[in-house]
Design goal:
The radius of gyration is 17 Å and the shape is globular. The protein has helices at about 5-15, 105-125, 125-145, and strands spanning about 25, 30, 35-45, 55-65, 80-85, 95. The protein is of the alpha+beta class and about 150 residues long. Strands 1, 2, 3, 4, 5 and 6 form a 6-stranded antiparallel beta sheet that branches.
Length: about 150
Amino acid sequence: MDKSLSSTLSKLHRAVLKPLGFRKKSATFSRERADYTELFNIQASRWNGPWGRSFYVNCGLTFRDLPMEFPWTYFPNTQWADRIETVVPTAPKQWDYSENQNMTQLTERLGACILEASEEFAANLSQYRQEYLERVERILQYRQGPKA
């Protein structure tokens, strides 16, 4: 991750997310809620270079009362995870930026999308929880193989 994006994430955390209870570890923001933890990870594109830079936003949930079975491999320690645009349809699939641009607009948009995703999680937590339970059931059935 380049210095411009790293600095932008630190500013976003200090100005917007930390006052709302989010912690920051590297490029991941997390917040503890009553029954779950929400996580937002900024994943730099592997194709970044002098021709352009971009990143993706992964979001995830862990449920306190459920065992951590089959966590998502691309977003460790989450029971449910996906890209932010699946939770916030207006969010970009790919966040483009350059080191020379003013990052204020990008910071505001990213913060707004994270907060909107957080509200969506809270409003529809039972749906995300059910998706996780169904995923666990599918994996267990697959591992058991066909029934005779």
